[in-house]
Amino acid sequence: MTPVELSRTVLCAVRRAVDVGALRVAVPARAVVAPPGPGGSGDYATNIALQLAKPSGRTPRYV
Questions:
Q1: Buried b (16+ CB within 10 A) or exposed e, 3-30
Q2: Do residues 5 and 46 make contact, with C-beta atoms less than 8 angstroms apart?
Q3: What count of other Cβ atoms lies within 10 Å of the Cβ of residue 60?
Q4: 35 within 8 A of 41, measured Cβ to Cβ
Q5: Are 22 and 49 in contact (CB under 8 A)?
Q6: What residue spans define the domains of the chain?
Q7: Per-residue DSSP letters for 1-63?
Q8: Cα 7–42–59 angle (5° rounding)?
Q9: Beta bridge partners of 45
C-alpha cells in the first residue's frame, strides 16, 4: 500500500467512526501518512489520533 492509499484508508476509518457515533469530530480533509522519524518503528506513521483527540474529548489511544 502506498502512503496515499493508507491516507484514504485512515480517513475512511475516521468517517466510519463518526458515522456510528464513536467519535464526534469533523472529518479532516486529509491524513498525512509518512515514514516514521528517526527511532520510530513501522513502515509508515500518522498523527491523526493526536489531531482528533482534543476535539473529540478522547485520548489518542481511544481515537
A1: eeebbeebbeebeebbeeeebebeeeee
A2: no
A3: 14
A4: no
A5: no
A6: 3-56
A7: --HHHHHHHHHHHHHHHHHTTS--SPPPS----B---TT--SS-B--HHHHHHHHHTS-TTT-
A8: 65
A9: 34
Q: Grid coordinates standing for 8? A: 484514504
Give residue 23's pLDDT: 94
C-alpha cell at 22: 464513536
* C-alpha cell belonging to residue 55: 476535539
At 28 the pLDDT is 93
Q: Which residue is listed with cell 456510528? A: 20
Residue 45 contacts residue 34 (beta carbons within 8 Å)? yes
CA dist., res. 50 & res. 30, Å (int): 14
For residue range 11-52, list pLDDT tens digits in order. Answer: 999 999 999 999 999 999 999 999 988 887 889 999 999 999
Side chain identity, residue 20? V
